[in-house]
Amino acid sequence: MKKKYYINSKVNHNILNELGFFVLKNAFKKEEMDKYRSKFLLSLAKKKINKTTNHLVEVKIDQLSFFKNIYKDHQLKNIVKNFYNGNVGSDFYRIVKKDKINKSPVFCHQDSGYQFGSFDRYSIFISLTNNNALNGGMVVYPSTHKFGYLGDAGTISDKITKNFKKICPDLEIGDVLITHSSLWHESGKNFNMKDRIYLEIHIQDANEPSTKFIIIGKNKKKIKIPFDKSKIFSNSRTQRIVRFKNKIKQLEKKLTN
Ligand SMILES: [Fe+2]
Fold first, then answer.
1. In a domain, 2, yes or no
2. Which is it for strands 58-59 and 106-109: parallel, antiparallel or unpaired?
3. Count of domains in the chain?
4. How far is the CA of 114 from the centre of ligand 1 (A)?
5. Which of 67, 145, 149, 206 could form a disulfide with 180 if both were Cys (CB 3.0 to 4.6 A apart)?
6. Rounded CA gap, 207 and 87, in Å?
7. pLDDT over 70 (residue 9)
8. How far away, in angstroms, is 243 Cα from ligand 1 center?
9. Most confident range, picked from 32-36, 49-53, 65-69
10. Could you tell me the CATH number of the domain that includes residue 192?
11. CA–centroid distance, residue 185 to ligand 1 (Å)
12. How many angstroms is it from 85 CA to the middle of ligand 1?
């Protein structure tokens, strides 16, 4: 079979720019990723961390200091060294997980609408399990990042996506999927109910004000956000939806009383 040109052991930036995604085989040592997975699963079992409520797959792991070691990992530095003229930062890391209980598909979306800062950003999805079409592995729509930010956040219509090619890369432990934050992506149901775990490291120019961790290079501008990001809006679409939902709940209560 012809070798897929978006898979290699080193990032090809021309192909990444063209497709909005790239797959790295054996980017991290399997034994090291086994350790990250064990630490994560143990913390989850001990209820030190929990799946985010109202999110299909996210588990926040900020309080697990062990995971911060990933930012010092030479294998990660090696992957990101040619982004942003060698000044690469990160604003968050998290786990996205499916298993035998949480096996639902994730709707087609782009991440840009949920993020803060510039649109020139990427996610590095490190496979902590074997992730593929059978356990709900990530599916990407090549080159759709070129449409840019779509002006809202939510489900991209299947009347549109059916006209586009989609790919579900077959990943093994230690393999990496890099995606541009504007790339359309989704994931299917976890059919075989085996764990599907990615460690997501979100990267950006180290000079962006929201940078929390430096992976390589420097933040020369040293501009920090002088306000609480989560409190920036006094009124927003999300806040209005929450208000409407609460109002509906109150009205329902009144009707049943
Ligand atoms: Fe996403």
1. no
2. unpaired
3. 1
4. 9
5. 145
6. 8
7. yes
8. 25
9. 32-36
10. 2.60.120.620
11. 6
12. 25
